Every structure is written in structure tokens, then in C-alpha cells.
């Protein structure tokens, strides 16, 4: 049983990852801004959990979260930086504020979490880091330049850290999903519907058709791959696509 920390654990992919890690017998730390969501997730878990509400983009909050875990249970052994935000706009309409907000949560927060989590993992000779990136960590798509840049960046971070620690017993990987059936995708569906003459059902069906498997990925399918990376010490430095075959690598 390991001490796992999942950011963005209140809904969507983070919630499914927390549920899967608990089902596999691990203790799980749940982090997001909304305490209500975290309490609801914690109530459904089969193992011990620790709810720590935090906005990870605020100075000092990452250190506070890790210190609370260390005080309560010990150092984090499995880190899943999952919290992220989407942003859809033409590059020419992307403001400095949009760019900074997306890069901060999707790239800088995972960097700071990894920097904090890694030394105790190296001391212990074992650890797992699994970042939730995206299929747009591997290829560009229109109108997601800030998001794609953040996800390409975080995959670069994963690959470099994995190479640094390869002989240590710590592995560092990314999971790269296509469109997953989560509240983030609900927002994408609503935005597509609002700027076209399509209903939300039609917009959702169009997103599903864009994936080779003809449907959205489920959060549990993403969580399965996180569990694989936790259980397997030979997978390191990978960005594993869970996208129904959109990117073949
Ligand atoms: N959905 C997709 O199709 C898809 C595809 C590929 C990759 N991904 C990636 O997968 C990850 C999860 O996506 P999702 O679809 O599950 O998103 P989601 O449904 O919007 O959930 C995001 C989670 O992150 C938390 N969060 C947001 N801002 C935060 C902050 N500043 N500090 C701490 N927690 C914060 C949210 O809770 P609070 O709002 O309460 O803080 C929530 O629990 C993201 O990195 C996303 O880019 C998603």
C-alpha cells in the first residue's frame, strides 16, 4: 500500500484515478479547490483518504499540501499531477493572461509538485509519478495553442525527469488521453454548441466521431493506465496514449 496524492481529484479523471488507486488498496490524498467535491469522492473510497482543499496556483500552497501529508501519513510515494484547465481560442485571440493561466496550472504546478515529491522518493529508492497530459502533448490542433503548449511542455518535463532518475527506482510517465467524458469535455461541448448551430447532443456526438473508436474515452480507462504505471517499474519516460488510436506511436 502506497501514499498517493492526486491533484484535481474532485471530479472527472482525477476522481476516477483516486477511486482506482483506493480500489487497488492505496491510501489517497485528494486535492482540488472545492472541498465539497473532495468530501464526496472521499466518502465513496474504500481505503483511508485525506482531503486537502487547495488552489495549487497560489504561492506556498503546494508546500502546505505536501507538509500536511508528511505530518499526517509520511511522504508522498505516488504523485498524480492531474489538475488542469482547457482553453480554446485562436492564437491571435489568446491574451497574455490566458497564456499565463493555462501554463501555470498545466505546466508549472506539475513541475513544482514533482520538484517537491522527488527527493523523498529518491531517498526511499521507490516512487511513481504519473502526469495526466493529453493527446495534444503529441500533436497540435487548431484553437488550443496555449493548452497544447502546456501539454507538450509537461511531456518534455516528464521525459527529462524520467531520464534523470532512471536508475533510482522512481519512474516518471505521462498519460495522454483524447476526449474523455468529464466536466471539462462538457464545457467544450457547450462552447462548440454556443458558437455553432449544433445542439449540445450533436456537438458531443461530433467529438465522439472525431476519435477513431467513435466514442469518448471513459475516466476509468485513463485511470487503468495510471494503475499500470504504478504497478510496473519498467515503464519510464513514456507518454502513453489513451485516445482510441488518434495518435499512433
Ligand atoms: N477531459 C478531457 O477530454 C481531457 C483530455 C486530455 C487530457 N485531459 C487532462 O486531464 C486532466 C483532468 O481533466 P478533467 O477533464 O478531469 O478536468 P475537470 O473535469 O475540469 O476536473 C479538473 C479538476 O482539477 C481541479 N482544479 C482546477 N483548478 C485547480 C487549481 N487551481 N488547484 C487545484 N485543483 C484544481 C478541479 O477542481 P476545482 O475546480 O474544485 O479546483 C477538478 O477537480 C487535465 O489536466 C486535462 O487537461 C482531459
Can you give me a brief rundown of this structure?
The chain has 249 residues and is of the alpha/beta class. It has helices at residues 12-23, 35-43, 61-72, 96-124, 145-164, 183-194, 200-210, 219-231; strands at residues 3-7, 27-32, 49-53, 78-80, 127-132, 170-177, 239-242.
Would you kindly provide a written description of the structure presented here, covering whatever features stand out?
This protein has helices at 12-23, 35-43, 61-72, 96-124, 145-164, 183-194, 200-210, 219-231; strands at 3-7, 27-32, 49-53, 78-80, 127-132, 170-177, 239-242. The chain starts with a strand and ends in a 7-residue tail after the last strand. The chain is α/β, with parallel strands linked by helices and 249 residues long. Helix content is 47%, strand content 15%. The longest helix is centred in the middle third of the chain and has 29 residues, at 96-124. It folds into two domains: 3-178 and 217-242, NAD(P)-binding Rossmann-like Domain (Rossmann fold); 179-216, no CATH class. The mean pLDDT is 97. It has a seven-stranded parallel β-sheet with strand order 3-2-1-4-5-6-7, with helices on both faces. The protein is built from eight helices and seven strands; from the N terminus they run βαβαβαβαβαβαααβ. NADP nicotinamide-adenine-dinucleotide phosphate (NAP) is lined by residues 7-8, 10-14, 32-34, 37, 55-57, 82-85, 105, 132, 134, 177, 179-180, 182-185. NADP nicotinamide-adenine-dinucleotide phosphate (NAP) binds next to α1 and α6.
Amino acid at each position: 500500500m502506497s501514499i498517493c496524492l492526486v491533484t484535481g481529484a474532485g471530479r472527472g479523471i482525477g476522481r476516477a484515478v483516486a477511486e482506482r488507486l483506493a480500489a487497488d488498496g492505496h491510501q489517497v490524498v485528494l486535492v482540488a479547490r472545492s472541498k465539497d467535491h473532495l468530501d464526496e469522492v472521499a466518502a465513496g473510497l474504500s481505503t483511508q483518504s485525506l482531503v486537502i482543499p487547495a488552489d495549487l496556483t497560489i504561492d506556498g500552497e503546494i508546500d502546505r499540501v505536501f507538509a500536511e501529508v508528511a505530518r499526517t501519513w509520511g511522504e508522498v510515494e505516488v504523485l498524480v499531477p492531474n489538475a488542469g484547465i482547457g482553453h480554446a481560442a485562436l492564437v491571435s485571440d489568446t491574451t497574455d493572461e490566458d497564456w499565463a493561466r493555462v501554463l501555470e496550472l498545466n505546466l508549472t504546478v506539475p513541475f513544482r509538485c514533482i520538484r517537491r515529491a522527488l527527493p523523498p522518493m529518491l531517498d526511499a529508492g521507490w516512487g511513481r509519478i504519473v502526469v495526466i497530459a493529453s493527446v495534444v502533448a503529441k500533436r497540435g490542433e487548431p484553437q488550443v495553442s496555449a493548452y497544447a503548449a502546456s501539454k507538450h511542455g509537461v511531456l518534455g518535463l516528464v521525459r527529462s525527469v524520467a531520464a534523470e532518475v532512471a536508475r533510482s527506482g522512481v519512474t516518471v510517465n505521462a498519460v495522454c488521453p483524447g476526449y474523455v467524458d468529464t466536466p471539462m469535455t462538457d464545457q467544450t461541448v457547450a462552447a462548440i454548441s454556443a458558437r455553432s448551430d449544433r445542439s449540445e447532443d450533436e456537438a458531443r456526438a461530433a467529438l465522439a466521431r472525431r476519435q477513431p473508436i467513435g466514442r469518448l474515452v471513459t475516466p476509468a480507462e485513463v485511470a487503468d493506465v495510471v494503475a499500470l504505471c504504478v504497478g510496473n517499474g519498467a515503464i519510464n519516460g513514456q507518454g502513453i496514449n489513451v485516445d482510441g488510436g488518434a495518435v499512433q506511436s
